[in-house]
Amino acid sequence: MSGTRHAATIDDLRELAIRRLPGFVSDYLERGAGDGGGVARNVDAFRKYRLVPRALVPVSPVDTRAELFGRAYASGFGISAIGTTGIYRRHADEMLAEVARDTNVPFILSGSASASVEAISRIAPEQTWYQLYGAKHMRLTMHMVDRARDCGVRVLVYTVDYPIPPRSEVATRTGISLATGPSFRQIPSLLLDALRHPRWTTRYLVGGGMPKLESWAPYAPAGSGARQVARFYIDNWLSQQTWHDLAAIRKRWDGALVVKGLVHPDDVKRALELGGDAVTISNHGGNKLDCMHACLDTLALIRNAVGREMPLFFDGGIRRGSDIVVATALGADHCFVGRATLYGVAADGVAGARRAVDILQSELTYTMAMTGCPTLADISGELLSLDRP
């Protein structure tokens, strides 16, 4: 019997995932940047809204289908990009792609994935989108763009909110990077933590230890192992992205282009003027800064500033199907979840990831029916009320 079969909520999956993961791994997942306030603020922002249902509306069956860039998907949410997922569960990217294919929701493969875009596009050819980070050398960036195009990816998600390497207080305290893994010198101090989580530890060791970042392996020196590839990635994956870079990528990429990580209305407008087909409002899941607005509040401000016609996606803090309704009512044209599905795959592989999608889909359908919204297009700001104690 699946360990997540009876999980009723994403919080249930979170508890199962945290129970399985060693502390030095789960801390990365939970805290985000700085003191962790950004992650918590993203989640808590949804709680200040209340829904005001309409009645006597025919809502059976509820239709959650969404069309994005000329393709129909089954729901108003997709699976967002999360890097180095192989540390939480080996082959997590492949598992998430399999679930995305079977449930027909978009899956964004991270630019720092443990799996290659070629492998993932073979698993889910119609659902795979590719997240691009700018490399320090433009030739590498453009080669990544070409790889995505050559294996049939239709949507490129250019992520622009990390001009310099992220700073993790968790890494500072532990001395461990999820990209490079622990050193032999650190193993004694981690031994007790590892022994308390035998399922994760056994899979990590039997699988050969630190997973290789296959997305970057082709660019590292020939014969590089997992640690050498990770070091090459750390040294080369970030650049000082500029509007010139966005224009160059738009010229190179002839598919749909999503610009992710913008939080200022003027930046959103300029990205669309330069040829972006949509913008994802995101604070990198709370991993950018711990002193930013909640992503949901940023969405509301930007939608009000840019008007209803500009295509906006949302990514940040969704834990319930009702959160998707709230974000859609505030102006999101589509929503993406990161930690919600990662909790599932970390807890129980494919079965856990599928359970996460099923929970969100069930809650979304129920909330839409209960608020008198037979389709996603029926969700509007009129459903929302601020909770005032």
Summary?
The chain has helices spanning 10-20, 23-31, 37-44, 92-103, 117-123, 138-150, 169-174, 187-195, 198-206, 226-236, 243-252, 265-273, 295-306, 321-329, 339-370; strands at residues 49-51, 66-68, 71-73, 77-79, 107-109, 128-133, 155-159, 256-262, 278-282, 312-315, 334-337, 384-386. The chain is an alpha/beta fold and 389 residues long.
Give your account of this protein's structure:
By secondary structure, the chain is of the alpha/beta class. The chain has helices at 10-20, 23-31, 37-44, 92-103, 117-123, 138-150, 169-174, 187-195, 198-206, 226-236, 243-252, 265-273, 295-306, 321-329, 339-370; strands spanning 49-51, 66-68, 71-73, 77-79, 107-109, 128-133, 155-159, 256-262, 278-282, 312-315, 334-337, 384-386. Helix 6 (138-150) links the parallel strand 6 and strand 7. The N and C termini lie far apart (44 Å).
Q: How many E strands? A: 12
**Quaternary state of the chains:** single chain
What composes the largest sheet?
8 strands, parallel
Mean pLDDT: 92
Separation, N- and C-terminal Cα atoms: 44 Å
State Rg: 20 Å
Q: Helical region count?
A: 15
In what order do the strands lie side by side in the largest sheet?
4-11-10-9-8-7-6-5
Q: Which spans have pLDDT < 50 for at least 5 consecutive residues? A: none
Q: What class would the helix/strand composition place it in?
A: alpha/beta
> What pattern of helices and strands is seen along the backbone?
HHHEEEEHEHEHEHHHHHEHEHEHEHE
- Percentage of residues in DSSP E strands: 5-15%
Q: Which percent bin holds the helix content?
A: 40-55%
> Quick one: overall form?
globular
